[in-house]
Request: fold
Amino acid sequence: MVGAEGAHEARLRLPQLRLDELLEELQARLDAARGTRDRVHSLLEAVLSVGRELDLEQALRSIVEAAAALVDAEYAALGVIGPDGRRLSAFITAGVGEEEIARIGPFPEGHGILGELIRHPEPLRLAKLSEHASSYGFPPHHPPMNTFLGVPIRVRDQVFGNLYLTEKRGGLQFDEDDESVLSTLAVAAGVAIDNARLYEESRLRERWLQANAEITRSLMSGAGQREVLGLIAERARQITGAALAAVAIPMKDTDTLAVELAIGREADAHRGLVLPVQGTLTGRAFAVGAPVISADVAHDDRVSAGPPRFAGLGPAVAVPIGSGERVRGVVLLARETGANEFSDEQTEPLQVFAGQAAVAMELAERRQDAQQIALLEDRDRIARDLHDLAIQRLFATGMTLQSAGRFIQHAQASERVRRAVDDLDETIKIIRSTIFGLRTIDDEAIGLRARAVRIAGEAAQVLGFAPSLRMEGLLDTHVPRETADHVVAVLSESLTNIARHARADRAEVALETDGKEVRLTVTDNGVGIPPEGRRSGLANMRDRARKLGGDMEFTCPVDGGTRLLWHAPLTEAAAPSEA
Reply:
C-alpha cells in the first residue's frame, strides 16, 4: 500500500519537474531574445551614430568607439591602409590613454596580426593572440592583450582598413555573434566613410573654386606678379594643410631656380635661395613639367642643395607652374613630420590650381611688355619732338645770331653773341646725345643676379662642391652697375680664398638689398684665417667697399669657419661724381 502511494507521488512530481524545466528553458529563450533585441537595438544606434558623421576623422573615431561598445571589448582600433596597400597610414584607438600611447611609441605600420588582416581581408577571431603564427609581439609598455577579433572595412569593394578588437570584458571569448555584429557594423562604417569622403571632396572642391575666384579678382584688379604668387602660395598651403609653401622661378641666362617667396615654417631659410635644376626636387618638377612627391623631404637626397631647411617637415610635393615648354616655376608644399603623404587625388586639383600661377605670370609679363612698349613709344615721341622742333629752332636761332654778329661793331657785344652761338651748338650736341640715349635699349646687359649665379657655378669647380646661394631684394634694379661690378669681384675673390685656404666642405652666400644698401655675406666651415696669414686680398675687398662709402667685417664664428660681411650704400654709390 505504501509502495503504491509512493509511485503515485512520483508520477505527480514528474510533470512538475518537466514544467519547471520548460519554464527555465522558456526564460532562457526570453532572455536570449531580449539580449538579441537589445544588441540589435545597440547595433542600430551605432549605425545611426556612425552615419551622422560627415567629418572623416570624427567618423573613424565614432566607428572605433561603437565597435568597442557593441562587442564589449576593452581595446579597439581602426587601421587605415595606405596607398601602397601594404602598410597602415593611420591608426585610431580607443581604450588607451594619451600617456600610454606616448610611452608605447609610434603607431604600428601593419606587421604581425595587423598585417595578417591586410594580406587576407577576412574576419579573424583568436582566443590567444600570441599563439597565432603571424604574432609579432608587443612593444614595451603595451597593455597585455589575449583575445582578438578583427574584420575588414570595405568602401565600394575596396578595402579601406580593418577594425581590431581585443580583450573582451569578463574574461570571455569573442563568439560568432560578436563577429556577425562587428561585420554588420563594418558594412555601415564603409557607407559612412564613403559619405564622409564625398563630403570632404565636395568641400575641398568648393575651397579650390573660391581660391581660384579670389585669384581671378586679384588679376583683374591689376595686382603685381609677386602679390598674386603670394596669394596662390598661401591658399595652396591652407587648403592642403601644408606647413610650408615656397615658389621658385627660373633665373634668366642661368640653369637655376630662385625661391621668389616662401610662407610658413622655415620660410626664412628658403626665401631667396638659388637652386640648380639638376639634382633637386624642385628642379625635377620644373624639368619634367609634372608633380614630384617626396615621402620625407627632410631626408630626401633631391633636396641636398643649400643649407638644412626642412626641420620638422615630412611629406612634400613640388608642382610645376604651367605645363609643357611653358613651365614658369614650381610651387613646393611640405607638411609637418608624421602627416599624411600627398595623394594623387590631392595633387590633381593642386596642379590645376598652379595653372592659375602660370596665368598670373603670363598676365604680369604682358602687362610689363605693354608698359615697356608705351614707355618706348613715349621716348620715341620725345626724341622726335626734340629733333624736329627743339634742335631745329635752336639751330635756326644760332644761324640768326651768327649772321647778326657780322653787323655788330662793338667788340664785347660781338664776343657775347659768339659765345651764345657756341652755347647753342653745345646744347644741340647734348640734346642729340639725349635722343640717342632715349632710343638705345641695352637688352643684352646681364643683371647682378645672373652674374652672381655664374660666379657661384664657376667656383664649384675649384671648391669641389656647390656653394649655397641666397639672394633677396631688387638686385638688378636697385644696385648700380659700378657697385654690381665691385660685388661680383668681392664674391669671386671670397670663393677663391675659400677654395685655396679654408679646407671647407660647405660655403653659403647671401646677397641682398633693401634699396638703401647692398650686403654680401660669405660663410664657410673651414679652418679660418691664421693670425700670420696674408691679408692682401681682404684689404682689396675692404678698399672696394670704402671707395663706395661702405665697409667690410671679417669674423671667425665660435663653431669654426669664417664669415665675411661686405656692404655698401646705394645712394652714395649712385652719385660719386657729384661729391
Remarks:
- The CA atoms of residues 24 and 563 lie 93 Å apart.
- Residues 30-37, 572-579 have pLDDT under 50 and may be disordered.
- The first helix runs from residue 2 to 51.
